[in-house]
């Protein structure tokens, strides 16, 4: 059988509290996935009263890179006690003709064997590209994915989270009800979220008293969470190298380190 080098089965440890500024997304996802945990369902017969269960097989997260789509998928898995199988669309598509389809079937087979399980398809646009726009080989890949999604029983065993920066090129069959039922936009963090992302990424660091996260948040408009994470690492590196040069100074990250990091910082995502 085809072995997908890049698909990792894991139980992630990301919690909602690790993610800044996306409470509305959390609420939406919790309402969609509340059926996972049957013990928690407040009104167990509600589905029956409303004529049977809703088919909720997956959600699509879309928006600029580095804005927590992967983290969100991992938090859903952690908070609902599910396994997590992560697959990169670009890895799947670079295989030989026929192999991608086999690999997709293999992913679903592995997920069912590890149920309850979330399959996270990162860069789903590379496998779910509109059949009109892709070459012949794309045809079967999309069909296989649709077929596998249709074959799973909603919320019983496998739930799918897709992520993309290009929702516009996805095959329309993929994004309609019964497949990716909900489409959730994950945008760039606002000022308050940026402040929290700074906080999350510096909480284990010795910060000097002059570090003002509000000022940093205001000065990083247009940055993604991944940009801010990168900026924090650069500031720490600068602090370490300063400390190496003058070990008599206190071992801490100062505002000047963040400012120097900011001077060389170009956000990857401009709104
Ligand atoms: P891509 O589209 O490039 O795959 P993504 O949207 O999946 O990106 P993640 O991989 O989830 O982005 O985020 C990258 C890193 O950025 C995270 O590991 C985290 O450290 C940081 N990050 C991004 N957004 C947030 C956020 N809202 N709260 C906390 N950390 C964040």
UniProtKB/TrEMBL annotation:
It comes from the Eukaryota. Residues 55-190 form the AAA+ ATPase domain. Transmembrane segments: none annotated. This is p-loop containing nucleoside triphosphate hydrolase protein. The chain holds residues 459 to 729 of 747 of the full protein.
